[in-house]
Design brief:
The protein is an alpha/beta fold and about 450 residues long. Helix content is about 45%, strand content about 15%. The strands form 3 sheets. The protein has a 6-stranded mixed sheet with strand order 9-10-11-12-14-13, sandwiched between helices. Strands 2-1-3-4-5 form a 5-stranded parallel sheet, with helices on both faces. It has a 3-stranded antiparallel sheet with strand order 6-7-8. Helix 2 packs across helix 5 and helix 12 crosses helix 14. The protein is globular, with a radius of gyration of 21 Å.
Length: about 450
């Protein structure tokens, strides 16, 4: 079945990679540290366990060549599977061959003797149609179709990478249509009691309501909706009333159509693991963002003792992120072709930039977040589909601007990251403005 979806070329290289894996007794997995990467790692580790192959998992936080090479060489004598990253980092390990890359990001092709499987090399849009978890899942299916039960973690990665906004497409949709066997409920993209769901909602983010429980209470009272009712229990009329009022609240900030689309969607109920798709994404991504990636990995590999802490971390993450979003929005700097802010933690710059770009400002300019408090400055950038459709490519922006400032960067057209030496923000911003100006006319 997976052969029919992928076609001969992509299936054959995946099959070759799985055969190589099956011949090993010990494998190291290198996964990007975010929600997509952690979801991908759960898929791969479950596959390795089923093959009775020992493994060691490490997370990739430094994507520049020097940092990546240093991490890789910690165990370069064994087969490394690199997921949700790797294609752009191949030049850093060009003298090695014992690796398999499962990636979906933009990269410049270079000669190598390892196995580099990047969705883009097979005509697949790595921004919309395949994420890291997609690549991990098709690898798992190529190894054995019985691994189709890892579908929930494929969906968690897709949602963490925001590839579900506006509906699935391309390879993601083909996989969903073929392997989804779960109950689906079309509802608002919220979870829990309505009061808590809105108060702690970050995707979508309701500016003026999220993080303000008293305002949420007033809002629900004026809507005639019981705040203690669970989202899944509200009736059709309540759903329509609440949805319309929340949409109007979002439109007050002149947000784009993508933000409104994310107000509702299909929620899957994964009875076998005890969480909905929305909850699973929140758990994996939330723990990843506060550097507790190991908890969901441990839990979904069978260690139930970490379950309570894992779930509690979601609210900790959301509370912290909500505070940072409001602070960053109030300090947001406007330039002609971009907006930027400083984030207190590097791991938070991405979700802050994403929330601001999608839910609090017009979709006409990308939002860039600089972290503070480290020797180097990590940068995260987020755009909109509106701007991408007009020519914006943040992968190219980050590559050029980071290089001009003495660093390195890359990623997707709609979301990218990088690192530069501290104190070089001015040089970065000058180049970023120039590149964006050349790509798209933003007024």
């Amino acid at each position: 079945m997976i052969y029919d979806i992928l076609g001969e070329d992509l299936y054959n290289i995946l099959h070759a990679a799985t055969e190589k894996v099956k011949s090993e007794k010990y494998i190291r997995v290198l996964a990007h540290y975010d929600g997509d990467g952690v979801s991908s790692s759960i898929i791969l580790l479950r596959v390795l366990e089923r093959l009775d192959i020992k493994y060691h998992l490490s997370y990739i936080k430094n994507l520049d060549n020097e940092g990546f090479r240093s991490l890789y060489e910690e165990e370069s004598d064994v087969l490394n599977i690199i997921v949700d990253a790797g294609s752009s980092q191949i030049p850093a390990i060009a003298d090695h061959s014992n690796f398999i890359v499962l990636d979906h990001h933009f990269y410049n092709k270079t000669e190598n003797s390892g196995i580099n499987i990047n969705a883009r090399d097979f005509g697949i849009n790595g921004t919309r149609d395949a994420c890291g978890a997609t690549m991990a899942y098709i690898f798992a299916l190529a190894a054995d179709e019985s691994n189709k039960d890892l579908f929930p973690f494929f969906m968690a990665g897709v949602m963490a990478d925001k590839q579900d906004i506006g509906g699935l497409s391309g390879l993601n949709k083909a996989i969903y249509d073929e392997y989804n066997s779960y109950k689906t409920h079309h509802t608002m993209n919220l979870e829990g009691t309505i009061s808590d769901a809105i108060t702690y909602s970050i995707d979508p983010f309701f500016y003026g309501l999220t993080g303000h429980p008293e305002e949420v209470k007033k809002f629900l009272e004026s809507s005639g909706i019981d705040p203690e009712k669970n989202v899944i229990d509200i009736n059709t009329d309540e759903n329509k009333t609440l949805g319309n009022r929340l949409a109007l609240k979002m439109l007050e900030n002149n947000v784009g159509s993508d933000a409104i689309k994310y107000l509702e969607g299909d929620v899957l109920y994964f009875d076998d693991i005890g969480f909905s798709s929305k909850e699973l994404n929140s758990i994996i991504d939330g723990n990843a963002r506060i550097e507790m990636q190991s908890l969901p990995v441990q839990y979904f590999l069978g260690d139930n003792s970490v379950g309570n802490d894992m779930v509690a971390n979601v609210k900790i993450f959301k509370t912290k992120l909500i505070d940072y979003i409001y602070r960053a929005k109030s300090d947001l700097k406007e330039e002609k072709y971009l907006r930027y802010f400083y984030a207190p933690e590097s791991e938070m710059a991405g979700p802050i930039a994403g929330a601001i770009a999608l839910y609090t400002v017009k979709p006409d300019k990308p939002v860039i977040g600089f972290n503070t408090g480290t020797e180097d400055i990590k940068i995260s950038s987020r755009g909109s589909r509106y701007s991408v459709n007009r020519g914006l490519n943040l992968s190219e922006v980050m590559k050029a601007a980071c290089a001009a400032a003495g660093g390195s960067g890359g990623g997707h057209d709609i979301a990218a990251g990088g690192v530069i030496p501290k104190g070089r923000e001015k040089q970065f911003l000058e180049t970023a403005n120039d590149v964006i100006k050349s790509q798209i006319k933003i007024i």
